[in-house]
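=== RUN LOG ===
request id: a7f3
mode: sequence -> structure
chains: 1
length: 151
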Amino acid sequence: MDEIDRDTALGVIERGEVAHVAVIDADGPYVSPVSYAIVGDHLVFVTRRGRRFLALRHDPRVCIEVTETSDVGWRSALVEGEARFVTGEAMHTEAIQSLLHKYQDGGEATLLGTSRSPGPDLTEVVAVPLDRVTGRSSGEGTHRRTRPGRL
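=== RESULT ===
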């Protein structure tokens, strides 16, 4: 495995479609997939008021992972930081618009986990600063099916 620089990791995040968000709640670590977008210097996503929401309310620390694969290998980018709920703030509208634009398909929003547009009654908007971004790659000469951590 090879380290990738910040700019390469940010490129992985910008091109990605699904991120995995890791949180910690009373039962331990919990990882779940999310649709996401980049707004300014933040990664934003929406969350319903379930386990992830409750975990973030209790402990805002998160680790977010995005992976891309190609014919020559894979790259994985991580964002670590403290999540902040932005519902009701100016960033909320920009986040929703960015998410809908990124995932719009044939005029309908296709955000992960819902077939309809997110709304303030259904979801909370979460922002994580892109301050701590790192990444790794499979390195040269590996096949795209080589899984992270299995070299």
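=== NOTES ===
The mean pLDDT is 86.
The helical segments are 6-15, 51-58, 90-103.
=== END ===
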